[in-house]
Amino acid sequence: MYKSLIRPLLFKFDPEEVHHFTFSILKNFGFLAKLFLPKPIEDKRLGREVFGLKFKNPVGLAAGFDKDAKLFNELSDLGFGFIEIGTLTPKPQAGNDKKRLFRLKEDSAIINRMGFNNGGVDEAIERLKKNKNVLIGGNIGKNKVTPNEEAVNDYKICFEKLFPYVDYFVVNVSSPNTPNLRELQDKKPLTELLSTLQNLNLEKPKQKPILLKIAPDLTDSQLLDIIDIVKETQIAGVIATNTTLSRENLVSENKSEMGGLSGKPLTKRSTEVIRFLSEKSGKSFPIIGVGGIHTAQDAIEKLEAGATLVQLYTGFIYEGPELINEINKAILQGK
After folding, report:
1. 116 carries a ligand binding annotation
2. Where do the domains of the chain lie, and which CATH numbers do they carry?
3. 263 marked among binding-site residues
4. Which one is catalytic: 108, 174, 175, 262?
5. pTM for the full predicted model
6. 55-107 pLDDT, tens per residue?
7. For the chain, N or C: smaller number of CB within 10 Å?
8. Is 292 marked as a binding-site residue?
9. Residue 211 neighbours by CB under 8 Å, 6+ apart
10. Catalytic: 175?
């Protein structure tokens, strides 16, 4: 129903406007979705315990969809095992100029250059106080106006403020849409950033998992550095991967737009990164696999490559909520 009726209608309009329209519908009429969508699969065999947290199933929603923690309860009702909010910054910011979100229909992809548009961490916290037992990841970043040499402070602010309200943290230094942000992926600044956050974490009576979200555009040498950094800082794991700057083999008219590319063109590369990290690290830390999951088989391949959990974003937009059930069914059939 989604792909035959709802998606063709939604895709006639500007993608960012459709995003806000969909949020409004789910917020005010989410109960109707339960009438038209298949009932989410609930099976104890889908449960996973990863970095000390219990997930009801291994299929989560990636950051960027519910940036401001406006819809995590309703999205969880669709069947997601966990919801990652953000990327949040200390201060509100409008993000980059519009138009900044583009569909690549022929490639089943999206290009975005949103630029961490969000209402700020304090506003999100007020909504998170209304959490109805949804497992929440908090994806954190720096404000655009904050120079890289002061970026650690932005991450510290978000970490301290969000700590009581999220179950795990994701450090985002891999978005291509904030100027110079990816420079923080270099070994020295990244080690400093993660060590600082981990030290804050260790001061708490009970620690929370800290994960690093990485770009798919890293070289093998850089990925080996990531493995070393994870071991040195003792963070909980890695999310692989964020959007890519590559434009290889695209055919859609929007293929040359600036920004990060997500969707099917990323499927193979993100799985390669997962496999590399898993094998070269000796499976020494958990990996959340994300990037180009449009079918149950895409998710299974990431799990087989070494991911412990998976996340959807662009595939969720193109394939609809039914994809969550399809993945969970495939996982159960493989048991």
Report:
1. yes
2. 2-333 (3.20.20.70)
3. yes
4. 175
5. 0.97
6. 999 999 999 999 999 999 999 999 999 999 999 999 999 999 999 999 999 99
7. C
8. yes
9. 51, 137, 168, 169, 170, 171, 235, 236, 237, 238, 239, 288
10. yes
